[in-house]
Design a protein that fits this description.
This protein is an alpha+beta fold. It folds into two domains: 6-52, Helicase, Ruva Protein, domain 3 (Orthogonal Bundle); 59-197 and 271-286, Elongation factor Ts, dimerisation domain (Tetrahydropterin Synthase, Chain A, 2-Layer Sandwich). The chain is built from twelve helices and six strands. The chain has helices spanning 6-16, 20-29, 34-43, 46-49, 83-86, 89-105, 111-115, 120-132, 177-193, 205-218, 224-242, 257-268; strands at 59-66, 72-80, 137-145, 149-155, 160-167, 273-281. The protein has a three-stranded antiparallel β-sheet. A three-stranded antiparallel β-sheet has the order 4-5-6, with helices on one face. A hairpin with a 5-residue loop joins strand 1 (59-66) and strand 2. The chain is globular.
Length: 287
C-alpha cells in the first residue's frame, strides 16, 4: 500500500472538497493515484456531499428499534438541515437502514465504526446527501442488549428518544399491565425531567466535590458544623435535579420516582429496577 502524505491529502481535499479522513482513505485505496482517488470519492458521493458538510445539521429525528421480546433496543440520532427533509420517505428509509446496520453489527458497533469513512453508515449517509441535497450526519447511537428488559419512549414526534434498561423483569410479569405502565411512566419521566444518573451512588465523586465546593463558598464565614449542614441540605436539592430515583414524579410531585417504582413492585410482587438509561434529543450533540 502506497504511503499517503499530508500534502497529497491536502491537494485532494482542495480538488474535491471531501473530508480529510475520506481523502486519506481514498488515496490509500487508490495507491496514491489522484484520478482514481477522485473517482472513489465520487462513487461514494463524498465529493459532492462534502460541499454541504459545513452547513449546520441540527434538525432530524431519533430513530428507534426495539426487539419484540424487549431483550434489545437501539436509539440513533440522524441529523439534517431542515424538518422538511426529516419528514421525507427518503430520510425515513435512511434511518431504517442505519438502525438495521447497527443491529447487524451488534456488540461490535461503536463510535469508531459509526464514523468510519469506509463503513456502511458513512456510505449510506453520503448517498442520502446526494439524493436529498442537505448535510446529513449520524453523530451517536445507544444500543442495549443482553442486560435485561428494554423499554423506550419517543417524544415530540421523534425529537426526543428515551431508552431504559430494567433488571428483575421475569417471564411471569413481563406482560402485566402494571409493568407496562411503570416502564412507560419512567421513560416519560426521563424525557421530561432529563436526569443524569440513576442513583446517588452513580454520581461521580468529582462532581459531588465540585458541588460541595460551590456550596461551601456560598456560606463562607459560618461555623464549620453549620457549613456542612447547609452543604448537605443543598446536595439534597442537587440530587433531586440530577438523580432519577430522587426526582419528584411528573405524575405526582408529592412522590419520588423511587417510591413510584417501589409501589409498582408491591403490586407486581417483584423487584424490578432501572439499571441504566439514555435520553437523546435532536441537535443536542451539536450544541
Amino acid at each position: 500500500m502506497a504511503t499517503v502524505t499530508a500534502e497529497q491529502v491536502k491537494k485532494l481535499r482542495e480538488q474535491t472538497g471531501a473530508g480529510m479522513m475520506d481523502c486519506k482513505a481514498a488515496l490509500a485505496e487508490a495507491g496514491g493515484n489522484f484520478e482514481e482517488a477522485t473517482t472513489i470519492l465520487r462513487k461514494r458521493g463524498l465529493a459532492s456531499a462534502a460541499k454541504k458538510a459545513g452547513r449546520a445539521a441540527r434538525e432530524g429525528l431519533i430513530g428507534h428499534w426495539l426487539a419484540p421480546d424487549h431483550s434489545a433496543g437501539i436509539l440513533v440520532e440522524v441529523n439534517c438541515e431542515s424538518d422538511f427533509v426529516a419528514r421525507t420517505d427518503e430520510f425515513q428509509r435512511l434511518i431504517a437502514d442505519v438502525l438495521s446496520e447497527i443491529a447487524k453489527r451488534g456488540d461490535l458497533a461503536d463510535d469508531a465504526w459509526l464514523q468510519d469513512p469506509n463503513g456502511p453508515i458513512r456510505k449510506r449517509v453520503a448517498e442520502a446527501i446526494g439524493r436529498l441535497g442537505e448535510n446529513i450526519s449520524v453523530p451517536r447511537f445507544v444500543r442495549y442488549a443482553g442486560g435485561g428488559y428494554v423499554g423506550q419512549y419517543i417524544h415530540l414526534g421523534g425529537k426526543i428518544g428515551v431508552q431504559v434498561d430494567w433488571s428483575g423483569v421475569t417471564g411471569a410479569i413481563r406482560d402485566r399491565d402494571e409493568l407496562q405502565t411503570l416502564v412507560k411512566e419512567i421513560a416519560m419521566q426521563i424525557a421530561a425531567a432529563s436526569p443524569s444518573y440513576v442513583s446517588r451512588a452513580m454520581v461521580p465523586a468529582d462532581v459531588l466535590e465540585k458541588e460541595r465546593a460551590i456550596y461551601r463558598a456560598q456560606v463562607a464565614g459560618k461555623p464549620p458544623a453549620v457549613v456542612e449542614k447547609i452543604v448537605e441540605g443543598k446536595l439534597g436539592s442537587f440530587y433531586k435535579q440530577v438523580v432519577l430515583l430522587d426526582q419528584e414524579s411528573i405524575r405526582d410531585p408529592k412522590t419520588t420516582v423511587a417510591e413510584v417504582i417501589a409501589a409498582a413492585n408491591r403490586a407486581l410482587g417483584a423487584a424490578v429496577g432501572v439499571t441504566r438509561f439514555a435520553r437523546l434529543r435532536v441537535g443536542e450533540a451539536a450544541a
